[in-house]
Design goal:
single chain, alpha/beta, 2-enoyl-CoA Hydratase, Chain A, domain 1, eight-stranded mixed beta sheet, 17% strand, binds ligand L6WJOLX4, EC 5.3.3.8, Enoyl-CoA_hyd/isom_CS, fatty acid metabolism
Length: 304
């Protein structure tokens, strides 16, 4: 297999731009009363993700802005990893809230076009980026809260599941779940482990086999999300939950989190290359490619 660009090389190519006091609609700057000086705040942006860190609270807001559906493309995943790494290495940052800047969609999951009609090398590079995203997010030392302000199938659900807490907008039109089976594909063992750790084995087994997507109220019933709120209350609730989690000493919370998640993280780390090879050989099968093409057709037909 040809040499694969490392994350470092993808980071160098991506050109993250630092911005000062970026007025995010959901950020502290937007809430600042006019005329008052801004409290310390740092922001950075790249093409698909906006980040604003409020240094006074230690809380960053990461917003996905990759229309039409925030699909997790290779570029998106690269930017996500860079942004998270920057926050992880910033001593001023203790917690991150993830939300979408795209109306009605949190994230539509892995970008299907990255898994269809491409070379083996491309599939391997893409899958390494998916692994990297999960390892960084699930293994983050920061408090992570998903403010799920739209539908969140498959990889989008994985992002939410990998956080410490999930708050979803109470709209029954917004759905969430690991629906891979509906596409004729299989959630890998670390998606499954993350899911089991949130909802338990029985519900995970049934949901994965059926590829179930749950409307927000259903998802709340079995703990796939922790709370539902009206859309206009989402930011306030996410900040309140964050404050509650940040009230604890970091070291105690971090060690506890690591104790709960380490075995699952270690399992992928130990089998990372094998997992890449499994993905590549699975996704490049003609029968799987056909399923993905049919699924994309179905998405297009649904519109007309
Ligand atoms: C034992 C052996 C095991 C081996 C296993 C080894 C490895 C594992 C193998 C594979 C694992 C893969 C894991 C995959 C995870 C995933 O995340 S797959 C993606 C799943 N996502 C979905 O199913 C969501 C599909 N999308 C939708 O349901 C809807 O688009 C929506 C998000 C609800 C939004 O609906 P709506 O607002 O009506 O928008 P449209 O449907 O019109 O979509 C707009 C355009 O966006 C395109 N699009 C949608 N989703 C995706 C996507 N995920 N990727 C790429 N593109 C997407 C859609 O086609 C529209 O495009 P056009 O405007 O028509 O061009």
């Amino acid at each position: 297999m040809a040499a694969v660009p490392t994350l470092a090389r993808r980071i160098a190519r991506s050109g993250v731009r630092p911005l000062c006091r970026w007025p995010l609609a959901w950020g502290r700057a937007a809430r600042q009363p006019p005329g008052l000086p801004l409290a310390p705040c740092r922001a950075f942006s790249n093409n698909k993700i906006l980040v604003e860190l409020d240094e006074s609270s230690g809380v960053a807001m990461m917003k996905f802005k990759s229309p039409p559906v925030n699909s997790l493309s290779l570029d998106f995943l690269t930017e996500f990893c860079i942004s998270l790494e920057k926050l992880e290495n910033d001593r001023a940052c203790r917690g991150v809230i993830f939300a979408s800047a795209v109306p009605r969609i949190f994230s539509s999951g892995l970008d299907i076009t990255e898994m269809s009609g491409k070379s083996m090398e491309h599939y391997a590079e893409f899958w390494r980026a998916v692994q990297e995203m999960w390892l960084r997010l699930y293994g983050s030392n920061m408090v992570t809260i998903a403010a799920v302000n739209g539908s969140s199938p498959a990889g989008g659900c994985l992002v939410a599941l990998s956080c410490d807490y999930r708050i979803m907008v109470e709209n029954p039109k917004f759905s969430i779940g690991l629906n891979e089976a509906q596409l004729g594909i299989v959630a890998p063992f670390w998606f499954k482990d993350t899911f089991v750790n949130v909802v338990g084995h029985r519900i995970a087994e049934r949901s994965l086999q059926l590829g179930s997507l749950y409307p927000a109220p259903e998802a709340l019933k079995f703990g796939l999300v922790d709370e539902l709120v009206p859309e206009e209350k989402l930011q306030e609730k996410a900040m309140a939950v964050m404050a509650q989690w940040l009230a604890l000493p970091d070291h105690a919370r971090q060690l506890t989190k690591s104790m709960m998640r380490k075995a699952v993280l270690d399992r992928l780390v130990a089998h990372r290359e094998e997992d890449v090879q499994n993905f590549v050989s699975f996704i490049s099968k003609e029968s799987i490619q056909k399923s993905l093409r049919m699924y994309m057709e179905m998405l297009k037909k649904k519109k007309s």
